[in-house]
């Protein structure tokens, strides 16, 4: 059995902490068993490890999330990166070709696909093996996990099974799917045994390989990457699941939540304040999550979420917080805060001058032992001022020590990297005609390889 974790999302539902590069699964607002901050993706990865499944798991993601996943899960995680953002059918097709062509996975192998951020208990992952059993026993094209509903939700999709035949089988045969029904319809479906569709399904690898061949699409990974942009941007549910001849479902009766909005996420946040802030005794069921350096005080407002980051400030009634995505649908603001495999950065200031020059100021934190990639830019000059720490900098193949108080000019086309010997903080001022993250040409990621390039 192989497990593919789908990591995507544009990050609008948990704005302003989430953005196009830091989606909801990367927010460290939960707690691990030792009480340390933990993101949703870190929680799932830890639970896979506890179930002995990490070595079978792959993360399928877009380019913008690669560094963040390495930063939170470590450099050993097996990644399948999409050349561009499409939809779940192209993403899963690409993953299938990677397993088949690059990993040599057999056509009879069970592939389990699931979101990277479900909020479940550990038993959920131990139950994944039942998907493989259901496929082998039922002869179905697909097998899904369905969650036993705890209330008639109008926000979830439902799996409606066929009537039980008294055979005592460990799986159900699926009759149909229903999306976000009204309350009365949901109550009736639950009485008939319907389950919440949590987006977890399994199939034999040959199902997708044969489908790609029928569509005259590549089954080899490198060729699929080349043609990825021409694949239809369509969901796997619509393209494959809803067209399957026979589908089985395994019932899961444990805890499951979609923590995709502020009202559901704050139900699992154990403290009312994260960051600088305070909530008065006259306030009930209020949460403050603050990434800024200025304090936030909430007095006399109940059932509210106040979230603040360099991207903005949200003050919302929790019951209305899911509407923030629609409210921001026309917003095109660049992310002002990002986490990377080496640390993080925050945008301090951005200005555009009459002559077209752009100036952007960042505060960069590089964790001890980590390094930036060996890279260059074509559209901007940079000036670095080291404010704390010690490291080694590379400029066009030459290495030197970097300490607090040093000021460096990094002109256009200059190949550069830096490694932090201790936690390193740099204020970077960019000047150019287009200050975007896409203006980075990465030559090498690993420090040992960078050093070898300099020696050559």
Describe the structure.
- There is one protein chain.
- The protein has 456 residues and is an alpha+beta fold.
- The chain folds into three domains: 256 residues, Spore Coat Polysaccharide Biosynthesis Protein SpsA, Chain A, CATH 3.90.550; 50 residues, no CATH class; 114 residues, Jelly Rolls (Sandwich).
- The protein has twelve helices and 30 strands.
- The strands form eight sheets. A six-stranded antiparallel sheet has the order 20-21-22-29-24-27. It has a five-stranded mixed beta barrel with strand order 8-11-9-10-12. It has a four-stranded mixed sheet with strand order 14-16-18-19, with no helix packed on it.
- A hairpin with a 2-residue loop joins strand 18 and strand 19.
- Helix 3 packs across helix 7.
- It is globular and about 75 Å long.
- It holds the Pfam family NTP_transferase.
- GO terms for molecular function: mannose-1-phosphate guanylyltransferase (GTP) activity.
- One of its GO terms (biological process) is GDP-mannose biosynthetic process.
- This is Cupin domain-containing protein.
Taken together, the total number of domains comes to: 3
**Biggest sheet details:** 6 strands, antiparallel
Largest sheet: spatial strand order: 20-21-22-29-24-27
Determine the structural class based on helices, strands and strand pairing. Answer: alpha+beta
CATH H level, superfamily name of the largest domain = Spore Coat Polysaccharide Biosynthesis Protein SpsA, Chain A
Net shape:
globular
Per the CATH scheme, the topology name of the largest domain is: Spore Coat Polysaccharide Biosynthesis Protein SpsA, Chain A
Q: How far apart are the termini?
A: 44 Å
Helix fraction bin = 10-25%
Strand content: 25-35%
Low-confidence parts: none
Radius of gyration from the alpha-carbon trace, in angstroms: 24 Å
CATH class of the largest domain: Alpha Beta
Tell me the number of helical segments per DSSP (H or I, 4 or more residues long).
12
Domain Nucleotidyl transferase: 3-268
GO molecular function: mannose-1-phosphate guanylyltransferase (GTP) activity
Domain Mannose-6-phosphate isomerase type II C-terminal: 340-444
Organism: Cohnella zeiphila
């Amino acid at each position: 059995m192989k497990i593919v974790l789908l990591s995507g999302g544009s990050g609008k539902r948990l704005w302003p902490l989430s953005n196009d590069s830091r989606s909801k699964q990367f927010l460290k607002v939960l707690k691990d068993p030792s009480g340390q901050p933990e993101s949703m993706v870190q929680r799932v990865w830890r639970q896979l490890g506890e179930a002995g499944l990490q070595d079978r798991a792959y993360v399928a993601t877009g380019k913008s999330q690669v560094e963040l996943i390495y930063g939170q899960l470590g450099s050993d995680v097996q990644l399948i990166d999409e050349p561009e953002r499409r939809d779940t059918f192209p993403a899963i097709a690409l993953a299938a070709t990677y397993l088949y062509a690059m990993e040599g996975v057999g056509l009879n192998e069970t592939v389990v696909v699931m979101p990277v951020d479900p909020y479940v208990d550990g038993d959920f992952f131990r139950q994944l093996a039942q998907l493989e059993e259901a496929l082998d026993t039922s002869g179905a094209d697909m097998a899904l996990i369905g969650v036993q509903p705890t209330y008639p939700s109008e926000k979830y999709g439902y799996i409606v099974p066929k009537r039980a035949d008294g055979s005592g089988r460990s799986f159900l045969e699926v009759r149909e799917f229903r999306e976000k029904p009204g309350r009365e319809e949901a109550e009736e479906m639950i009485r008939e045994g319907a389950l919440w569709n949590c987006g977890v399904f399994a199939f034999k690898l040959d199902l997708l390989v044969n489908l790609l061949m029928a569509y005259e699409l590549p089954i080899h990974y490198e060729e699929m990457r080349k043609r990825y942009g021409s694949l239809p941007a369509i969901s796997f549910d619509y393209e494959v699941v809803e067209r399957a001849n026979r589908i089985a479902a395994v019932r899961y009766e444990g805890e499951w939540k979609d923590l995709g909005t502020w009202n559901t996420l704050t139900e699992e946040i154990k403290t009312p304040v994260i960051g600088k802030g305070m909530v008065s005794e006259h306030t009930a069921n209020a949460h403050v999550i603050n990434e800024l350096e200025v304090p936030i005080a909430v007095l006399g407002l109940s059932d509210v979420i106040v979230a603040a980051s360099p991207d903005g400030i949200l003050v919302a009634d929790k019951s209305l917080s899911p509407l923030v995505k629609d409210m921001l649908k026309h917003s095109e603001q660049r992310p002002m805060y990002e986490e990377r495999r080496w640390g993080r950065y925050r945008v301090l200031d951005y200005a555009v001058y009459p002559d077209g020059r752009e100036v952007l100021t960042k505060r960069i934190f590089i964790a001890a032992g980590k390094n930036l990639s060996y890279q260059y830019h074509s559209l901007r000059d940079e000036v670095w001022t080291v404010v704390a720490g010690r490291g080694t900098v590379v400029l066009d193949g030459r290495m030197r020590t970097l300490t607090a108080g040093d000021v460096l000019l990094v002109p256009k086309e200059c190949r550069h990297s830096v490694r932090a010997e201790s936690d390193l903080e740099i204020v970077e001022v960019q000047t150019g005609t287009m200050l975007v993250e896409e203006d980075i040409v990465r030559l090498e990621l690993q420090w040992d390889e960078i050093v070898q390039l300099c020696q050559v």
